[in-house]
Amino acid sequence: MKKTLRQINTPTCRYCGSNTEVRKHGKGNSQLQRYRCMACLKTFQMKYIYLGHEVKYSNLAI
Ligand SMILES: [Zn+2]
Prior knowledge:
Bound molecules: zinc ion
Number of helices: 1
Organism: Budvicia aquatica
Largest sheet: 3 strands, antiparallel
Protein name: Transposase and inactivated derivatives
Radius of gyration: 14 Å
């Protein structure tokens, strides 16, 4: 059984869609791996993409 694993070291930029200019950018809160896109110079976290539409952060408005 063959696996077609993709390189998780080069995630796709959530802003411009580039996957060749993304570099690791240290760790953010909760030890999440942060990335920086050298194409649009924006930083992002991979987990944020999945939690973005699920977590409402309703508890922050205290
Ligand atoms: Zn980008």
